[in-house]
C-alpha cells in the first residue's frame, strides 16, 4: 500500500473533500465537514448502497426515522444499560483510553507509563440531551447511536403499509452519534458519523442461510465498486467480542494504512430487538404467517456499514501515484459511480471565443452528469487537479474546436485522448458512465 493517513487527510483538505470541523476556532477533535467535492462522493457512496440494497430489490424498502427517539427505545434495546466501552485513565498524564483497543493494556500510549492505568469502568457511549425547556431526568433523551432501532420500532408500520411477506428488509441511511473514548484515524472513527443499515427479517430457521447470503452480497458490493479484493477480508467475531444482541457477527475488514480494521459488520441479531420492544411497549410485534397460521418473532440479519468510513476506504484504495514524463502524477482511480465529478469541461484558454462555447457544452452535459467547469491555470495543472479528485473524463475545448466542432476527451486512467464531435458527446460518454 503506497498511501499514508496523512497523505489522504492532506489531499482531502487541499481538494475540498473533508475539512476538520470548526477549524477557525481551533478545531473540535473528531468532527469533520464535507466540502464541495467530498459531499458529492459521500452522496454517491450512499446512493450506490441504496441502489443495491433498496432500488434493485423487490424485498427491501427504506425508511428515514428520527434521530431523537423515546428514551424507552434505548432502555428496551439494552443500550442504556450496556452500550459501553471499557475506559481506563492514566494516573500519570490523565489521558483516557479504550482498553479493548490498546496494543498493550498495561502501557499508556501517551506518556509511556507502565501500570499507570486506573481500573476500567464501563463508559456509556450515548450522547445525552434534554427535550424541551426543562433540563431534568424526565426529559432526558439520547442521540441515536445506531439507525437500527428506528427500524425495529417501525416494523409493524412498515409491514402493514408495504404488504411485504417474510423474508423482507428495511433499510436506512443516516446520522448516528457515539461519544467515542478515542476517536481518530481521520474520519475512520468520529463521534458523529453516517451509517447505512438494513434489517433483514426472516424465519428463524432460515437465519443462517440469509446471514451467509448477506456476508457474501455485501463483500461483493465493495469489489464491484472497484475496491481491491485482496485489501478486503471477512473476519468472524470471537464469542467475547459479540454485541449484547448478537448471536453471530462477521466483520468485513479493509486493510487500512494502520492495518486491518472494520468496514462493516454483518450480525445475526436473532429476535432480540423485536422481543424487547414487544415486552417494553406492550405492542405485539410478532409476525403473523397467513399461510401457516403461526405467530412468531422473526430473526434479523443486519448488514451495518458506515457511510463516512466507507468513503474513506474508497479514497485510500483509489489513491495511486505514477511517473509520467519525469513527474509524479497522483490519480484517484475511483469507480465512475463514486467519482465526485464525472466530467470536467476545460476551455484551453480564458479567451471568450473558447470559454463561451465550452460553457454551453457544460450547461448541456450538467443535465445528465455532475461536472466541474474550470478555466483557471494551465491545462496541465487542471488535468492534475481532476486526476487528484478522480474525475473520469476531461473535455477540452481548444482553438480547433471552433472549426471542427469537436473536443478532446481525456481518459483519467489511460490518459488517452479521443477527438469527439460535440454533437456525439453524449453518445460517446453514456456507455462509459453508465
Ligand atoms: P467498533 O467496535 O469499531 O467501535 P462497532 O463494531 O461498534 O465499531 P457497529 O456498531 O457494528 O460498529 O457499527 C456499524 C458500522 O458503523 C461500522 O462497521 C462502521 O463502519 C460504522 N461506525 C461505527 N462507529 C463509527 C464511528 N465512531 N465513526 C465512523 N463510523 C463508525
Q: In terms of structural class, how would the helical and strand content be classed? A: alpha+beta
Number of domains: 3
Discrete helix count: 13
Query: What are the segments in which pLDDT stays under 50 over at least 5 consecutive residues?
Result: none
Q: Which second-level CATH architecture of the largest domain applies?
A: 2-Layer Sandwich
The profile of the biggest β sheet is: 7 strands, mixed
Described by the principal axes of the CA atoms, the overall outline is globular
Structural features:
3 domains, seven-stranded mixed β-sheet, single chain, BirA Bifunctional Protein, domain 2, binds adenosine-5'-triphosphate, alpha+beta, Rossmann fold, five-stranded mixed β-sheet, globular, 434 residues
Amino acid at each position: 500500500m503506497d498511501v499514508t493517513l496523512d497523505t489522504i487527510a492532506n489531499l482531502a483538505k487541499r481538494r475540498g473533500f473533508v475539512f476538520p470541523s470548526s477549524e477557525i476556532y481551533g478545531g473540535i477533535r473528531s468532527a469533520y465537514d464535507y466540502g464541495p467535492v467530498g459531499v458529492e462522493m459521500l452522496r454517491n457512496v450512499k446512493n450506490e448502497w441504496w441502489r443495491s440494497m433498496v432500488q434493485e430489490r423487490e424485498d427491501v424498502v427504506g425508511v428515514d426515522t428520527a434521530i431523537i427517539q423515546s428514551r424507552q427505545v434505548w432502555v428496551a434495546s439494552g443500550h442504556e444499560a450496556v452500550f459501553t466501552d471499557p475506559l481506563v485513565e492514566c494516573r500519570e498524564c490523565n489521558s483516557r483510553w479504550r482498553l479493548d483497543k490498546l496494543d498493550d493494556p498495561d502501557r499508556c500510549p501517551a506518556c509511556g507509563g507502565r501500570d499507570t492505568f486506573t481500573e476500567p469502568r464501563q463508559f456509556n457511549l450515548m450522547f445525552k440531551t434534554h427535550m424541551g425547556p426543562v433540563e431534568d431526568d424526565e426529559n432526558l433523551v439520547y442521540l441515536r447511536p445506531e439507525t437500527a432501532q428506528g427500524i425495529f420500532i417501525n416494523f409493524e408500520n412498515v409491514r402493514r403499509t408495504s404488504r411485504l411477506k417474510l423474508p423482507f428488509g428495511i433499510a436506512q441511511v443516516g446520522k448516528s452519534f457515539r461519544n467515542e473514548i478515542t476517536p481518530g484515524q481521520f474520519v475512520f472513527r468520529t463521534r458523529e458519523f453516517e451509517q447505512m443499515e438494513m434489517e433483514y427479517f426472516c424465519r428463524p430457521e432460515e437465519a443462517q442461510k440469509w446471514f451467509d447470503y448477506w456476508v457474501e452480497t455485501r463483500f461483493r458490493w465493495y469489489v464491484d465498486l472497484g475496491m481491491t479484493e485482496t485489501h478486503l477480508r471477512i473476519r468472524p467475531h470471537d464469542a467475547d467480542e459479540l454485541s449484547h444482541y448478537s448471536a453471530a457477527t462477521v466483520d468485513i475488514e479493509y486493510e487500512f494504512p494502520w492495518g486491518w480494521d472494520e468496514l462493516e459488520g454483518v450480525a445475526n441479531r436473532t429476535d432480540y430487538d423485536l422481543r424487547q420492544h414487544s415486552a417494553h411497549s406492550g405492542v405485539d410485534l410478532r409476525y403473523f404467517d397467513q399461510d401457516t397460521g403461526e405467530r412468531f418473532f422473526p430473526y434479523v440479519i443486519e448488514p451495518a456499514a458506515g457511510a463516512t468510513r466507507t468513503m474513506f476506504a474508497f479514497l485510500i484504495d483509489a489513491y495511486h501515484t505514477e511517473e509520467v514524463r519525469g513527474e509524479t502524477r497522483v490519480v484517484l482511480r475511483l469507480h465512475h459511480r463514486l467519482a465526485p465529478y464525472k466530467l470536467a469541461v476545460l476551455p484551453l484558454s480564458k479567451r471568450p471565443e473558447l470559454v463561451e462555447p465550452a460553457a454551453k457544452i457544460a450547461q448541456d452535459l450538467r443535465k445528465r452528469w455532475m461536472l466541474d467547469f474550470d478555466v483557471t491555470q494551465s491545462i496541465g495543472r487542471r488535468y492534475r487537479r481532476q486526476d487528484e479528485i478522480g474525475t473520469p473524463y476531461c473535455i477540452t475545448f481548444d482553438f480547433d474546436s471552433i472549426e471542427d466542432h469537436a473536443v478532446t476527451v481525456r481518459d483519467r486512467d489511460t490518459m488517452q485522448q479521443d477527438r469527439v464531435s460535440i454533437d456525439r458527446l453524449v453518445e460517446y460518454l453514456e456507455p462509459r458512465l453508465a
